[in-house]
Amino acid sequence: MSMLLAISIFLPLLAGVTGVLSPTRSTKKMQGASAGILLALTLSLLTHPRATWSYRFLHVGQLDLSLHLAASPISTWMAIVTAAINLMAQVYSIGYFNHVPVRSHTFPAILSGFTGAMLFTVFGSNLFTQFLGWELMGVGSYLLVGYFKTRHAARFAASQSFLVTRIGDLAFIIAVASGLPSHNGSLPAINHFASPWVAWGLIIAVLAKSAQGPFAPWLLDAMAGPTPASALIHAATMVAAGPFLLIRYFPLLSHTPGTLTTLAIVGGATGVMGGLGAMGTQEIKRLLAYSTVSQLGLMLLAIGLGSPLTAWILLVAHAGYKSLLFFLSGIASERRLASKIGDLSGGLTLMEILLLVVGTLGVSGLPPTGGFIAKSLLSQAASPHPAYWMLDALTAFLGGAYGARLFWALKGPRHPHNQNTSYWMTIPPVLLAAFVLINTVWQPLHAGSLPNFSALAIDLTIILCGAISGLFLAANFELITGRGWLLAWHIASRSLEGIAQADEWDNQAVRLAIHTTKTFSHSVRWVASGRTQWYVAVSSALLVTFIVIITTH
Amino acid sequence: MIILLALFPLAIAAVWLTPRAMTHTVFLTAAVLAFVTTIFFMPLGDGTSISWWPLLGLNIDLRVTPLNTPLLWLNAIVLLSTAWIAIRPPKGQVTLLLLAALGVSLSFLSHNILLYFLGFEMAVLPFFLLVRRDGGDSRREAALYFLGYSALAGIFLLAGSLLLVTHHVTTFSATHLSHSLQLSLYGILLVTWAIKLPLWPFHLWLPKTHGEAPTPVSMYLSGTALKVAPYGFILFTPLFAQASTTFRPALALWGAVTVVMGAILAFAQSDYKKMVAQSSVASMGYVMVALASGTPSGQELAILVMVGHGLASPLLFLTAHHIQKRLGTRNLDAIVGLYQKDPQLVRWITLGAFCYMGIPGLALFPGEFGIVVQTWQQAPITAAILLIGILVMAAVWIRVLARMRFGSPETHSPLPVPPQEWLHPFLLGIPLVLLGINPHWWIQLWHWGGL
């Protein structure tokens, strides 16, 4: 059933391209329909676990770049998650753009194309294919983050997101180039034997794309994009692609010295930083972005601890509750026409507050949600290593704290002066909340046992302490900002312009040469009548000399 | 093949015999005929050999080979789109462009060394006159730079060709030459390639010329005429294979430095059109890196980049023309918020910009990515320099896009665009995407040559 696989990847890509080329009023519905079909397709791939599809992209000499896609249980489940969140985002954006004064014709199409790019990386079974999806996601995120073209913040955020992730792309190129000699970089071959260059290249690429460590600011500023796009980027594409890729290449990482330690340290530290940042920020979407940075850090920590399965469970659980929270906070922002944490209370109806409770429990890691299972598993995996356990516990504590802060910001009796919102925006949160609850007892691909009781209890206590203290801890500060990258940009552009001054010296040298020639030709008056003639004269003189040589030969 | 070459003089005659109002029609007809001839009537392996001036070794020896077919197709497409967008062109401009097209076709087809030189020169002088005639405010200086540099390149090419002819080598078929002769030839011709490719720091003529040249001239010059020199490199190299082996790593490094410097200089430009021109320098750097590898795959990758660049750069020069028309200036400080005035134009620019950044699915990706990967395996330091070039190139275009795509709406409503102008970019844009999605359609030309 290779066709099925190919169709499920190219359907969203094609839908995206056609939608961007011919934006009409019915685009939203068409893209929504194609998103529904896509979900059905990815679900049906569950029954075809061995589907493959390949295409020779470029073959010259020794160089053989092929696209190779293969369904495997983990790819299919990731694809289902992506397709499901994409469908939710499409449905949500039907209502969302009723209120936003921007022509929304191309937005759903870009969303589709972006999903298609993610599926490329998900199903790709060699480095080159995954790289293609990776790059196209970069383009997609640029277009989505910069969708509100009249906002100054969007301009900076989009440029920053593209350039910062581009740095990681270079590392990915190195990984692809170093991986090609081993069976054209196919996934099993890479996992079996590949140079450390591949492992380190992938790690740097993932740190950049998943906003970890020094690369974190781009994701926070990317909040300038529309809410459905943020939900998709945070939950199931782009940043989620990073941990997913590392899970797939875990065997390679596990036999490359130093990589797992690096991941655990960077992931754990970013987790704590993200949690702290979420306690200081005053904007609801930024709080959610900090939380994403923090939870992605936990996923990397899980991989670094040698437990990719935990990272996977957290990835799926996070997709559910993070998109749920984005959608809910988007509804509150629309109703209250505000984005500051203090101004949002009273934006939600009673039913939506119940959904919010589910989402908050999920993001904090409390029962009965999938987040609880994932966080407990992680805490169990970290328990043998005191240092990592400290990082994990601190992140869990902060997770409880910012969860409580989030809930506090959005709760409250309904405000009398709310704007109306479309019912299209309420459908996705309901479905997602149901998923978050079901996720407690069912995780895709997880047949293992639950964490032991003591791990559960300790984790629960820490999070609850965090939740209680969260209501008092919140402050007003911004921990991670794009200033560093902005400064780097200014320094880089100054120095590039400095180097470009070399052109001026070059120019002076040429002028000097011209001047010398002029002076010289003035002294020899008969060639000084004009430049064209001078040129023709020299050429023909050479030709004549040559003929003379030939004839005398 | 002969039909193609005969077409251009006939078209020039037709331009002068018909009234002024017909000039554009004649130009377009000639371009369509050239397109049809190239694609349908020039199968691979087609060849003609006519003795012309045996004493000099100057014979009309033309061949359609796997290497020149993709470039001939590119030439056909670029000439067609140039002819299509030239609105009310003066007779002189059309004449000179057709003459340049003849020169380009001649040098692509030639298997004879002196005939290649003839074509090379015929592809140079018309541009000098075109820039001087129809250029912008500082056209005299630009034309002088173009001529001065080209003359120097031409003299060295002539010297090299003559040196070969005196040793009874008149065609590009590989022969055995003594090592010292190979070395001197290599050195002489390197000057030509460095100037005409161009390699940094011999590139000054390029942005100056494009800054002043009228749009159709820029499109044709960068689309096709710029490919004559790298193609010459491919032709000449087998003649001094031994000598070239020695200098390969250095040449590749020079190419990589050109990529970075081209990108940096593009970054420093304040004029949109000059920036596009400087970006071309970076692309030609990739071509040099690929050619320096000396492998057949390197050659094919170089041709892929040449074709990709030949589609992308005319497209961006076309957008430069539209920017000038919409805003009255091409200064990068003045383009803020262009999207609000002409969204369609900015979409095309975005496409071209992503192409230059090397995004998959667009024309420059297969070649450039292939070159980086291949170079990484042979010379990691050179590849690392190329990676810096990729990053700087992304910065160059992101800066431009940040200005064009964003900005306050002010009071401008979108300006109406005439339907014909709206269609213009498609002729280059469609092959640009096709080449990016399936480079094999072009590579097939190596194998089956034409339809």
Low-confidence stretches of chain A: none
Contiguous runs where pLDDT drops below 50 for at least 5 residues of chain B: none
Number of helices of chain A: 23
Q: What's the total count of β strands of chain A?
A: 2
| Average pLDDT taken over every residue of chain A | 85
* Residue share in β-strands of chain A: under 5%
Question: What distance separates the N and C termini of chain B?
Answer: 15 Å
Structural class of chain A comes to mainly alpha
Largest sheet of chain B: 2 strands, antiparallel
- Percent helix among the residues of chain B? over 70%
The termini of chain A sit apart by 74 Å
- Measured by DSSP, the beta-strand proportion of chain B falls in under 5%
What does this molecule look like?
The complex is a heterodimer of chains A (553) and B (451). In chain A, strand 1 and strand 2 (63-70) form a beta hairpin. Chain A has 553 residues and is mainly alpha-helical. Helices cover 71% and strands 3% of the residues of chain A. Chain A contains 23 helices and two strands. Chain A has a two-stranded antiparallel ribbon with strand order 1-2. Chain A starts with a helix and ends with a helix. Chain B is an all-alpha fold and 451 residues long. Chain B has 21 helices and two strands. Chain B has helices spanning 2-17, 23-40, 69-85, 91-109, 113-122, 125-134, 139-166, 179-196, 205-212, 215-223, 228-236, 241-268, 272-292, 296-327, 338-341, 343-357, 364-378, 380-405, 419-423, 426-437, 439-448; strands at residues 47-53, 58-63. A two-stranded antiparallel ribbon of chain B has the order 1-2. In chain B, a hairpin with a 4-residue loop joins strand 1 and strand 2. The model of chain B has no long low-confidence stretch (mean pLDDT 85). The chains are: A mainly alpha (553), B mainly alpha (451). At the A-B interface, strand 1, helix 5, helix 6, helix 21 and helix 22 of A face helix 7, helix 12, helix 14, helix 17 and helix 18 of B.
